[in-house]
């Protein structure tokens, strides 16, 4: 029955008067519970309210936003075995019929003093209430400040009917307001709790993220510096301290020499531009000074970083040590220079050889038939010896340019050092003493003895010039193993066993600037006319040609040490040199085709060969040589073929001759034998090989050996 409805039937009599004092006391106690900072026990609130209101059951339900579902229910009942709303999956329709809910939605109180007196049109409502033993019921809506229904407070009697007076209802409505305020406060507190938990999670996440970033920066191999916009250094990572030695406090001092004077102006402009425009500077190659005074090559990247609001907050500097890379680049440039100069030296030596050929041949012709008593004999021999020295110089240039193969053999380095020491003792000033520290246990190396002598003599002469007032020149030999770590720092070296020859002096030493150029061709610190600048370049070339490496350590006033690494040879016994039997020098009317692009070499060579009894035909190039051989194949017994000629060239000419006549006897001649694959091919197709400039007697021996 609705409060505004009128029913016929039993007249409800009020059998008791509400104890107003009990309600007010209950209201005061409930107020204290709701005002407590702790969460209220709504079941206990319902118990206080039920006892004060003299009912059998009280409850509070909370609806969903659409009032169709019941989120939760709190209740009190004085009968333990009575129907309970707790732990039930309720919807609104199972708790209140639609007619009841509609009344609550409009914020109206629902009161039924006697359920049994409900008229027939409320049969459904009557059955629903009777199913949970309700005799009378009062439901007060709980609405938000906006008027939206959010819940309800129910008062039910299960034993008797009763009627609630308007004053009682108004008093109980106060409880409804308290419930609303309590729920709103709970929602606020819950939102705060969620916010606090989220903030705590975010804080922990930020701490973890910060720890990760800090770990990344601290573990970075690059040196990292962070500063404020005012330039004050705020942070330096461990790699910075390890690389440069400066601490953060020292970096903030104006007296620090971290930035070289020559770099300060550009650095200031770079930082100002980055700070104002935010443009990044990447991989700028510069130099920085360490705390111990060294200057190292670094790659610098500079960028500006912003705060959480996007405002400029500071500067980030990343330094990468590129000293090793710069060293590798310098070694590459040095190798390219040596290669270029080597090619030039080889070309010069080739032309020089052709000129020497005419001198050698002419002298041999003039010496023929002259005995030692002839007045011109000694003069001619002097010219011959001068030409031989010039020829040796040419060979040194060819070796330097890698245009001539070395004549390697097993060598005891200690013996070579002793021989050179004997020579130096007779040639350098007496106030320079020579000290030998030779390890007798070193193994053999594969080397050209003459070139080893050239290395040590060059270094000895340089040491003499570095000690004008006297000093000590020392030679030390030892056997060492070069590991991966050393080879990675010195890319020109290979892992393995080496014999190390150290040549040291305690002379004036060299500056770092001079040290960077000592192996460059034509670089010299000597006065004009005192040095060519080729000595150390040739030493460098010879060492490389032996498969070794050389480094120099020097400083002003601290002397100089050259360390030369020779690979240990795989053999220990010297081969016995073969002694050629003496041969006849009679030509026996054999015909030789001499191919050379130099007219002087052709004419003099023809004269010499004819003097030995050979019929000699000449050709100026490969094309004419092929044409001549094809026409006179049966009458030509041997071909002496120069490799380096204009046009076709000796290599192609040889291939065509062999293709035409596989049995052709060809001797190739050249001062160039460095190209190993080509050399092997030529030696395979040809019968023998002779070097230029020709020694006519040795040339004749080779010719006789091939013809026989």
Structural notes for this entry:
It is a single chain. This protein is of the alpha+beta class. The protein is 44% helix and 21% strand. The chain is built from 21 helices and 22 strands. Strands 2-1-5-4-3 form a five-stranded antiparallel sheet. Strand 6 and strand 7 form a beta hairpin. Helix 10 crosses helix 17. The radius of gyration is 55 Å and the shape is elongated. The N terminus is likely disordered.
Task: State the share of residues found in helices, binned by percent.
Answer: 40-55%
Largest sheet, in brief, is: 5 strands, antiparallel
Tell me the distance between the termini.
145 Å
Radius of gyration: 55 Å
- Largest sheet, order of strands side by side? 2-1-5-4-3
Number of helices: 21
């Amino acid at each position: 029955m609705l409060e505004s409805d009128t029913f016929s039937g039993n007249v409800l009599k009020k059998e008791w008067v509400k104890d107003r004092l009990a309600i007010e006391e209950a209201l005061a106690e409930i107020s204290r519970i709701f005002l407590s900072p702790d969460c209220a026990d709504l079941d206990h609130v319902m118990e206080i309210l039920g006892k004060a209101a003299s009912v059998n059951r009280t409850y509070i339900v909370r609806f969903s936003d659409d009032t169709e579902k019941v989120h939760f229910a709190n209740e009190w009942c004085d009968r333990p075995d009575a129907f309970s709303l707790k732990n039930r999956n309720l919807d609104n329709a199972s708790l209140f019929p639609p007619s009841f809910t509609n009344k609550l939605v409009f914020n109206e109180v629902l009161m039924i003093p006697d359920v049994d007196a409900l008229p027939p049109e409320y049969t459904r409502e009557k059955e629903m209430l009777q199913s949970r033993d309700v005799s009378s019921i009062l439901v007060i809506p709980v609405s938000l400040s906006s008027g939206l229904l959010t819940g309800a407070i129910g008062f039910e009697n299960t034993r008797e009917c009763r009627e609630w007076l308007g004053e009682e209802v108004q008093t109980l409505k106060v409880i409804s307001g308290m419930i609303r305020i309590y729920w709103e406060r709970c929602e606020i507190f819950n939102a705060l709790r969620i916010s606090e938990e989220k903030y705590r999670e975010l804080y922990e996440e930020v701490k973890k993220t910060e720890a990760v970033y800090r770990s990344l920066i601290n573990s970075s191999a690059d040196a990292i510096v962070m500063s404020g916009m005012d330039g004050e250094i705020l942070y330096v990572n461990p790699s910075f301290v390890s690389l440069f030695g400066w601490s953060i406090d020292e970096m903030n001092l104006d007296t620090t020499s971290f930035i070289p004077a020559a770099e300060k102006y550009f650095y200031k402009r770079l930082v100002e531009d980055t700070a104002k425009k935010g443009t990044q500077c990447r991989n700028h190659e510069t130099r920085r000074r360490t705390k111990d005074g060294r200057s190292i090559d670094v790659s610098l990247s500079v960028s500006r970083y912003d705060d959480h609001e996007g405002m400029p907050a500071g500067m980030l500097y990343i330094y990468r040590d590129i000293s090793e890379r710069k060293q590798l680049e310098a070694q590459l440039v040095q190798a390219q220079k040596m290669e270029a100069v080597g090619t030039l030296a080889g070309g010069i030596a080739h032309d020089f050889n052709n000129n020497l050929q005419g001198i050698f041949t002419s002298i041999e012709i003039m010496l023929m038939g002259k005995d030692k008593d002839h007045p011109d004999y000694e003069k001619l021999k002097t010219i011959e010896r001068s030409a031989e020295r010039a020829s040796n110089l040419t060979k040194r240039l060819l070796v330097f340019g890698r245009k001539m193969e070395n004549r390697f053999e097993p060598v005891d380095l200690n013996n070579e050092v002793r021989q050179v020491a004997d020579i130096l003792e007779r040639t350098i000033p007496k106030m320079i003493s020579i000290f030998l520290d030779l390890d007798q246990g070193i193994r053999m190396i594969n080397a050209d003895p003459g070139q080893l002598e050239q290395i040590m003599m060059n270094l000895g002469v340089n040491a003499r010039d570095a000690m004008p007032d006297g000093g000590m020149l020392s030679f030390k030999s030892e056997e060492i193993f070069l590991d991966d770590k050393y080879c990675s720092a010195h890319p020109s070296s290979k892992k393995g066993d080496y014999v190390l020859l150290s040549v040291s002096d305690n002379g004036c030493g060299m500056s770092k600037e001079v040290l960077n150029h000592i192996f460059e061709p034509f670089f010299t610190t000597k006065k004009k006319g005192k040095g060519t600048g080729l000595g150390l370049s040739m030493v460098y070339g010879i060492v490389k040609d032996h498969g070794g490496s050389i480094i120099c350590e020097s400083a002003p006033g601290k002397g100089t040490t050259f360390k030369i690494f020779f690979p240990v040879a795989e053999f220990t016994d010297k081969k016995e040199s073969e002694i050629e039997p003496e041969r006849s020098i009679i030509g026996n009317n054999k015909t030789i085709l001499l191919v050379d692009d130099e007219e002087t070499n052709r004419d003099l060579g023809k004269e010499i060969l004819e003097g030995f009894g050979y019929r000699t035909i000449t050709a100026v190039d490969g094309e004419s040589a092929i044409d001549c051989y094809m026409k006179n194949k049966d009458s030509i017994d041997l071909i002496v073929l120069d490799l380096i000629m204009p046009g076709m060239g000796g290599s192609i000419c040889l291939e065509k001759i062999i293709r035409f006549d596989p049995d052709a006897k060809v001797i190739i001649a050249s001062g160039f034998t460095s190209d190993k694959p080509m050399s092997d091919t030529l030696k395979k197709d040809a019968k023998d090989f002779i070097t230029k400039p020709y020694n006519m007697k040795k040339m004749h021996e080779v010719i006789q050996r091939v013809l026989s």
